[in-house]
Amino acid sequence: MKTNSAIKSLFICTLLSTLAALPSCAQQAGGRGMPAEAREQIHALFDNHASIHREVKLTADGYTALTESDDPKVVAALKKHVGQMQLRLGEGLSVRRWDPAFAEYCDHYAELDHEFTPTDKGVRMTVKGRTATAVKIAQNHARVVSAFAAHGWSEHDKKHDAVTR
Question: Could you tell me the residue ranges of all domains in the chain?
């Protein structure tokens, strides 16, 4: 019997040591929960916000946004960023959880339909909410992203109001 107890104890100690040695999900994803490549795209957009042209049309069920640039590097970053965020949010992961507007957007992501269309100079995004609340959240998200494009890094660290909280 002592042998079985010793084996169980050794197994548990080994398992706990192994789990403790594993990096956390945040560390695996680049330290703050976002993979390095995704952070690079976002930073490129903040760094080059002055070269981004964004037009948003609010609709009864959400919004349509055309976000473009004449700089080919910014165009590539725009396209890559939108694809990365669609994948991330579609997998149930979050972004900017500390920002009330983004936390709300992540929480209601499944209530939103997203249509991403690449253009020669960027992206066209159409977002439609399936509920009245989701429509408000989508439109709020459009306003926040427009503020990022307009103001760059000075807007980055701000918290943005949620519309349902």
Answer: 34-156
